[in-house]
């Protein structure tokens, strides 16, 4: 099985399948085949013992020892890059935006304040991509849903629901990226098979079902 997995990755099969499914899902929703914008964010995940020292790091902010996943999405995954958790968001975003530039026509990306600074000018100059920083409201107190940013948080939650992605088990970061793409492929295939978005399962209590 791993032999086929390796061959498919060498032939970029997962990238091609993901692109085809993404276009089909969007077309079924009455939208254009490719999105006009994306949202970038990162997620630090713990690394298992199989993750070597050369490709793992420590995220001081999240207090996580392992790897960091950078994704660009607009509900449906566009690109993913996996690297050591010690990599700063602005540095990891450069590799991710370059992958986005090479793989998709998306040239407008929303991001949170962690990506602000020199990255904005770099993206405009080298990959012709506009990075728009979505900031919290100045008077915000406590939790609040921030426009645009909630989409990428939801996508990361969807991916983490796959047990293989609960932590990083792979020796090679490229294999970790492939596992994320396979999870996205599964989500899109299920959505096409259902013909609609999934509904949240209602919880059961002693008194019956609740929403």
TrEMBL record:
Keywords, A to Z? Answer: Membrane, Transmembrane, Transmembrane helix
Q: Which Pfam families match?
A: DDE_Tnp_1 (PF01609)
**Keyword Membrane on entry:** yes
Q: Which residues cross the membrane?
A: 70-87
Q: Where is this region: Disordered?
A: 29-53
Q: Does the keyword Transmembrane helix apply?
A: yes
User: Which InterPro entries does the entry mention?
Assistant: Transposase_11 (IPR002559)
Q: Where is the Transposase IS4-like domain?
A: 34-183
Recorded hits in PANTHER family, A to Z, give:
PHP DOMAIN PROTEIN, TRANSPOSASE
What is the official name of this protein in its record?
Answer: IS5 family transposase
- Which organism does this sequence originate in? Nocardiopsis lambiniae
């Amino acid at each position: 099985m791993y032999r086929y997995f390796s061959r498919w990755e060498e032939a970029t099969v997962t990238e091609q399948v993901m692109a085809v499914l993404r276009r089909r899902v969007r077309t079924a929703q009455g939208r254009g085949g490719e999105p006009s914008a994306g949202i970038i964010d990162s997620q630090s995940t713990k690394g298992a013992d199989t993750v070597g020292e050369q490709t793992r790091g420590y995220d001081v902010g999240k207090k996580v020892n392992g790897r960091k996943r950078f994704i660009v999405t607009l509900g449906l995954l566009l690109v993913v890059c996996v690297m050591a958790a010690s990599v700063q968001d602005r540095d990891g975003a450069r590799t991710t935006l370059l992958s986005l530039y090479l793989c998709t026509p998306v040239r407008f990306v929303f991001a949170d304040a962690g990506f602000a600074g020199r990255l904005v000018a770099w993206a405009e100059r080298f990959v012709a991509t506009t990075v728009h920083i979505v900031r919290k409201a100045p008077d915000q107190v406590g939790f609040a849903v921030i426009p645009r940013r909630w989409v990428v948080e939801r996508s990361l939650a969807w991916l983490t629901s796959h047990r293989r992605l609960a932590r990083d088990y792979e020796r090679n970061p490229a294999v970790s990226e492939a596992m994320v793409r396979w999870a996205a492929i599964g989500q899109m295939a299920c959505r096409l098979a259902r013909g609609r978005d999934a509904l949240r399962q209602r919880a059961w209590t002693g008194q019956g079902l609740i929403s």
